[in-house]
Specification:
The structure is a single chain. The longest helix is centred in the last third of the chain and has 15 residues. Helix content is about 30%, strand content about 25%. It folds into two domains: about 60 residues, 2-Layer Sandwich (Alpha-Beta Plaits), CATH 3.30.70.3550; about 150 residues, Aminopeptidase (3-Layer(aba) Sandwich). It contains eight helices and eleven strands. The strands form two sheets. It has a seven-stranded mixed β-sheet with strand order 6-7-8-9-10-5-11, sandwiched between helices. It has a four-stranded mixed β-sheet with strand order 1-2-4-3, with helices on one face. With about 240 residues, the protein is of the alpha+beta class. The chain is globular. The protein starts with a helix and ends in a 19-residue tail after the last helix.
Length: about 240
């Protein structure tokens, strides 16, 4: 384990219990703890408290809850004129939970501007694949001529979707996936999508920063409501102008 964490006594190491520090009292940077494991119960416990794992291959598991927090309210997705014209072409077809492992593998392997390597290492992928098999994780796939060209994945609990990663092999493919997700979540009464940290690409689509306290308050309320646990393969989406 890295000495920087062994020497920093302000950042606790997790043991076998699933007890996390209260994020309301952590630094704005958001690093709360390190260590533990990526078992489904620990990950679900973390998300319920507004915490998520994010670390590089040679790091210990790091757990975060930054301030501010970027979220998107489903009814605030922004569609500019050029994207509206693209959607009218109906170039892509959307499916839900049809190819989760393919989506997460693409999210791990697709090259991204300004990014070397990936945080989505095998242990992380295996953890989310297990959560998908349990009915908590979900994928949205974008197809062109029956070929997967984009998509995204995340977790759902209560009336919150916790977005994790997306990829695009063709023009606007990940954006169409995100549009489809927001429309379906909006129709099903979801409160917000957690986008975690500031991202200019998501901000262009309507995501915005809110304070961590506000995020945690809204999360707590949303988690009291029923979940769409299980497969989302029956979810349907078609663009409506």
């Amino acid at each position: 384990m890295s000495s920087m964490f062994e020497d920093d006594y302000s950042i606790p190491s997790l043991d076998k219990s699933y007890i996390f520090p209260d994020p309301r009292y952590s630094a704005d940077e958001g690093l709360l703890a390190f260590g533990g494991d990526l078992s489904p119960n620990r990950i679900l416990t973390a998300y319920r408290k507004g915490i998520f794992p994010w670390f590089n291959k040679d790091d210990p598991i790091l757990w975060w809850s930054p301030n501010p927090r970027m979220i998107l309210y489903p009814d605030e997705f922004k569609v500019n004129k050029s994207f509206k014209r693209f959607l009218r072409q109906e170039r892509y077809k959307i499916k839900f939970d049809n190819a989760f492992e393919e989506v997460i593998n693409y999210c791990s392997n697709v090259d991204r501007d300004g990014q070397n390597g990936t945080w989505l290492i095998d242990d992380m992928k295996n953890a989310y694949i297990e959560l998908f098999q349990m009915g908590f994780a979900h994928s949205i796939e974008v197809y062109e001529n029956d070929i997967l060209v984009g998509g995204l994945y995340g977790l759902s609990m209560g009336r919150v979707f916790f977005g994790e990663s997306m990829f695009s092999l063709k023009s606007n493919a990940s954006k169409v996936a995100f549009k489809a997700l927001t429309d379906v979540l909006n129709s099903r009464g979801y409160d917000f999508i957690d986008c975690q940290v500031k991202n200019d690409y998501l901000a262009q689509m309507g995501a915005k920063d809110i304070s961590r306290d506000k995020f945690l308050d809204e999360l707590e309320e949303s988690l009291t409501r029923s979940s769409d646990l299980g497969s989302w393969q029956d979810f349907k989406w078609e663009y409506k102008d």
